[in-house]
Task: structure prediction
Amino acid sequence: MTNSIKMVDLHGQYLKIKDEVDQAIQEVISSSAFINGKPVEAFAHEMADYIGAKYVVPCANGTDALQIAFQTLGLRPGDEVLMPAFNYVASAEAAALLGLVPVFVDVHENTFNINENLIREKITPATKAIVVVHLFGQSANMWPILELALEFGLKVIEDNAQSLGSDYLFPNGEKKKTGTMGNLNTYSFFPTKNLGCFGDGGALSTDDQGIFSEAQMISRHGQGQKYAYDRIGCNSRLDTIQAAILRVKLKNLDRYLKNRIAAGHYYNQLLGTLPQVKIPAENNWSQHTYNQYVIRLEHRDKIKDLLKEAGVPSMIYYPSPIHLQKAYAYLGYKTGDFPIAEMLCREVLALPVHTEITSQEQEFVVSALINAIKTLWHNSLRIHLQ
Ligand SMILES: *Cc1c(COP(=O)(O)O)cnc(C)c1O
Result:
């Protein structure tokens, strides 16, 4: 088994739906409608039904989706956009490209999501929007964020790239899927996301017809009537082949999520009693779908090396916070500005989790992790005794 543990198993996942996927791809090839073929619109409707949103605009990837969202919501150069300090680069990058000012907010150490209690103090007259990122498969605490947005007239964008299919439970018992609560929400179908295609893909969702039309227009060169350009847009399309694949995979999404959730819970059970490991917290307002299973521990880098020697892959999401990256130095942040995000970058480790993982594989991962911790402990003891 040593060599068979994978961070993700896209091939194994494909084999279970191979006939249907192959046929869907073949149909696109036969039709030659590679751009804006029928499966694109069909997928948009099916996805809207699945998440419970009125409209979905497919686009080329999740980063484009963020840029299209900022443009659609009318954000202007100099507008401040709040976003979590512990995050993938996409929202800061898309904002910066449009001349918007990314303003970071520190996160919760046990869920990795934006700390809703730290948002208010970051709001200035220039603040126009907030990007809520549902990290690793778990919803941020939306209700207080939506209340703040209402109070200050902020636009809300949910970056749901990592958590398609997760739920958020409002205090009044109402349940909604992540990525359906903001003004305009963004998705990525990068292969390793909860719903992944065979290349790049993305989408936006909204309940507002005006926002829908505007986002769709911007994604199509800002074109209203043919060759009439009403706004500066971009060219961001979901390939027909990817849409055809996504239609097949969407039908299997509930099974995929069930497997991820079961795997996450099994890790929680196996690791919950290890004092050296902090397992990811599950909030009572969210159904965690474990797009990533991320633990925290000391000596993370050494443990990662020892795991690798034992044949267990692991990944670091994310090794360095955006506010300390060279490209974003112009924002003027310094070490210590976001202590939780900085600490997480030192301590987080993502263990293998995917739709095909078996309990035996998970047990192997955990025993390798325990061995790695023991090895480190023995080594440091030896150094002490010398
Ligand atoms: C993957 C991801 C994106 C962007 O996705 P691409 O499709 O690769 O552009 C944006 N935000 C977050 C949080 C992501 O994980």
